[in-house]
Amino acid sequence: MKKGLLILVIVAAVLLLAAGGYWLWQRARRPDLATALAEARRAAQTPTPEASLSATPAPTPTPGLTLLERQLTGDALPLQYSAAVALGERDDLAADERARLLCAALQAEVDEPSTDAPRLRDAYLEAHEMYRLRLTRSLGQLGPDGLPAVQAAADEADGLAREHLLVALAYLGQNEVLPEVRALVTDSDDPAVRMDAARALGLLGDRDAIAALTAALDDGHCVPASDSLGEYTICPVRDQAAGALDALGLAVTRHADGAITLEATP
């Protein structure tokens, strides 16, 4: 009896020793929760190398309609121009809302031109003319969803604002306005409108505009400019009309005196 009890005690001791050894072995292989937490805490407190931070740039803030409207209605022309560019490109914003803001800005610029803005060096248009040009082209980027709002604005507008809106409608593919846009190439008093009308007709491949574009090769709006090679003259309406004719498959000749003529077709 005593011998059997002794054997049981020895077996139990061996089992306890084996269990303890296994536990120590597992602990060495897999740290306990406290150890894991301590290591995580140390890792969190270790500064991230500067090179690693610079390798992951912060996302660029995306202005919403409210901020873009504030910039567009401000009095800082560079910010207004930047907002006009953004409104033409931001497909994540509703096209009719973008059209509303751009049309309102165009009418405001026509009513009170930013004539006090300094002219950009060697620019072929005044700063306020460049801004109207940008507003028109941004309207022309809105796509079919923006067409109803632009059409409604054109129906209510007159004068210079309507001329720009007609060109915007041409950019949007509204063929019904093409006869009026052809007339603008030579009849508008504004060089920005004449130039942009010629550009739109060339992009649209409007061969019915050839006569108007040919007449625009004699446009009188020219401005002096200079660069490292010397002084020269820029005639933006002539140049745009020549580019449109070239897009329509007609050859033009640029002469040393600045004149541009249409080559005779055989």
Which bin fits the share of residues in helices? 55-70%
The share of residues in extended strands comes to 5-15%
Rg (C-alpha, Å): 36 Å
For the sheet with most strands, the description reads:
2 strands, antiparallel
* Cα-to-Cα separation, first versus last residue: 130 Å
Shape: globular
Instruction: Classify the secondary structure makeup into a structural class.
Output: mainly alpha
Count of alpha and pi helical runs:
13
Give the averaged pLDDT, no decimals: 81
**Largest sheet, order of strands side by side?**
1-2
Low-confidence runs = 50-54
Query: What pattern of helices and strands is seen along the backbone?
Result: HHHHHHHHHHHHEEHEE
DSSP, total strands? 4
Q: Which characteristics define this entry?
A:
single chain; 266 residues; mainly alpha; two-stranded antiparallel sheet; 13 helices; 61% helix
Structure notes:
It is globular, with a radius of gyration of 36 Å. It has a domain at 65-173. Residues 50-54 have low confidence and may be disordered. The strands form 2 sheets. A two-stranded antiparallel sheet has the order 1-2. The longest helix is centred in the N-terminal third of the chain and has 28 residues, at 2-29. The protein has helices spanning 2-29, 33-45, 50-54, 65-72, 77-89, 95-111, 127-139, 147-156, 159-171, 178-187, 191-204, 210-215, 236-247; strands spanning 223-227, 230-234, 252-254, 260-262. The chain is built from 13 helices and 4 strands. With 266 residues, the protein is mainly α. Helices cover 61% and strands 6% of the residues. Helix 6 packs antiparallel against helix 9 (159-171) and helix 9 packs parallel to helix 11.
